[in-house]
Write a structure and sequence with these properties.
Number of helices: 17
Strand content: 5-15%
Oligomer: single chain
Distance between the termini: 23 Å
Shape: elongated
Length: about 425
């Protein structure tokens, strides 16, 4: 990891990764107990970090092991206890109480009064994002506060861990300690009868996504950031996480809605194509011959008996009947047709025998043309959506660049890092 990255950027990258991971793995919390979800997250993070950094365990001092153990306990509490709290109180309020941990670190770590103003504003922002009028269960509130205390401990212990262990070795060992701590709880859950999650490959896949994006990627970024910024500044920065959570949620929701609309449009196309007849009966030298509908040619004389579908667009040359074209045109009642009347492929003959001269077959029929129009519309976007995407493409990076420039200018003129934020 390059040292050229500003620590503020590292924290923002870590926050974004955490929220993306949580959003992608949200289904994990619906099919596993919270302690199992926390164990899967920590376990997969430990495996990934172990493969990447491969720490050496021999010859470690007592201080190194104590710092790694404390770190492991803190990060385990952050995950497991928080997941337990959101079982009892709304997520927004759980986050609000949990953020008291890093905000307390920021408040006690600030040495100037004006820094406390930014801490207070950060606290207000967290409260406004998470406030809920519903009554709260005291146990849930207590668990959220305990998770916040673990978060505060994590902020305090991370720089020490980074100083006592080379690179990210201590962080990796801390995750393995956390996975071991939660293993008995996970096994007890399985023994008690809640083991169906262990047989579901999807659960393990979501656990991998959660471990990678919510732990293995962001925690090293945060460790590097905490080695280059004060704990107070880091505590204030973490208050951006609820806003990041909301932003990521909106972005992923938009993509999900777009993907769902495309799937539904595709289903509509397939259903529309199913409307057409599979076979047709045509007159050849006065004899009725059954052929696949795809072999029809222009000017073929198609025989349509009651209850059969018209195999192609055409004009009635013989017979009279009532034709039901509701699937295509939306008309609620069958339409009477006779010689000279136009009929649409896919419509249903209801009463008499008809002979229809084909005027459009295959891809030239109205049904096929409608299907092509629907398919062509799938990748397209409304003008307002294109405008919003265009603004997002340039506006968001511009705001980030301007924010970074403002932060750096404040530092150059002598303002403290917390004030510059």
């Amino acid at each position: 990891m390059r040292r050229g990255f500003p620590p503020v950027l590292l924290v923002l990258m870590a926050t974004t990764s955490v929220q993306i991971g949580s959003s992608l793995a949200k289904g994990l919390f619906a099919v596993t107990p919270p302690q199992v979800a926390a164990w899967l997250r920590i376990l997969f993070a430990a495996v990934i970090l172990g493969i990447v950094f491969r720490p050496t365990l021999r010859g470690r001092s007592r201080e190194q092991w104590l710092s790694a153990a404390g770190y492991g306990v803190a990060l385990t509490g952050m995950s497991a206890i928080f997941y337990l709290s959101i079982q009892r109180i709304p997520v927004g309020m759980a986050v609000t109480f949990e953020f008291l941990g890093p905000l307390t670190v920021a408040a006690f770590g600030s040495k100037r009064r004006r820094d406390l103003i930014w801490v207070a504003l950060a606290a207000l922002r967290v409260v406004l994002l998470g406030i809920s009028p519903a009554p709260l269960e005291p146990v849930g509130v207590l668990l959220a506060l305990l998770a916040g205390a673990c978060w505060g401990a994590y902020i305090l212990l991370t720089p020490t861990l980074g100083a006592r262990w080379e690179g990210f070795s201590g962080l990796t060992v801390g995750f393995w300690i956390g996975a071991i701590l939660l293993l008995p709880v996970t096994l007890a859950t399985a023994i008690s009868g809640e083991y169906s999650w262990a047989l579901d490959p999807g659960v393990w896949g979501m656990g991998l996504a959660l471990g990678l994006l919510s732990s293995a990627v962001p925690f090293p970024l945060e460790m590097r950031a905490l080695q280059r910024m004060s704990r107070a500044t880091f505590g204030v920065l973490t208050s951006l996480e609820p806003a990041a959570a909301a932003l990521v949620a909106f972005l992923l929701l938009g993509r999900w809605i777009e993907a769902r609309s495309k799937r539904e449009a595709g289903s509509a196309v397939r259903a529309l194509l199913e409307v057409g007849a599979k076979e047709a009966t045509i007159l050849r030298d006065g004899t009725e011959v059954a052929i696949p509908a795809g072999e029809l040619s222009l000017n073929d004389l198609i025989v349509v008996r009651p209850g059969e579908k018209v195999a192609a667009d055409g004009v009635v040359v013989e017979g009279s009947s009532a034709v039901d074209a509701a699937v295509i045109t939306g008309e609620s009642l069958p339409v009477e047709v006779g010689p000279g009347s136009a009929v649409v492929g896919g419509s249903v003959n209801t009463t008499g025998r008809l002979v229809v001269k084909a005027t459009a077959v295959g891809s030239a029929t109205q049904v096929a043309q409608i299907a092509r129009l629907v398919e062509a519309a799938q990748p397209g976007k409304a003008r307002a959506q294109r405008l919003a995407d265009r603004i997002t493409e340039f506006f968001v990076p511009a705001v980030l660049v301007l924010s970074m420039l403002t932060f750096m200018v404040q530092l150059l003129v002598g303002a403290g890092s917390t004030f510059a934020l």
